[in-house]
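Changelog-linked ticket: H2B example.
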Amino acid sequence: MAAYTEEEIQHSLRDVPEWSRKDGSIERTYTFNEYLDGIQFVNKLGAIAEEKDHHPYIGVDYGKVTVSLTSHDVKGLSARDFDLAQRYDEAYTNLED
Ligand SMILES: C[C@H](O)[C@H](O)[C@H]1CNC2=NC(N)=NC(=O)C2=N1
């Protein structure tokens, strides 16, 4: 899978408006009322990463989980990053279920 062009990146970012471009990555911080709620969410992110065979950088702070996505194999952003970003946003939206 090839790295996305600038045009493809700009187009794909519209589908994940909460995510920001950070150099060769995209990033989003999810917020939580409790530290352990964030940790539980990290476990979900990990399970989805294994399912998709695409793995994020994850940073955990009090009430915050920051996710950064890039495609190491193509040294840039690819469809896999944007697919995973959408899955993660869905998982966050559905947390109450
Ligand atoms: C063999 C396996 O598909 C690769 O090593 C995968 C695993 N997860 C990965 N995750 C990310 N973010 N980038 C990769 O290039 C990558 N490669």
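Closing comment: Example verified and attached. Residues 7 and 15 are 14 Å apart (CA to CA). The domain at 6-93 is CATH 3.30.1360.20 (Gyrase A; domain 2).
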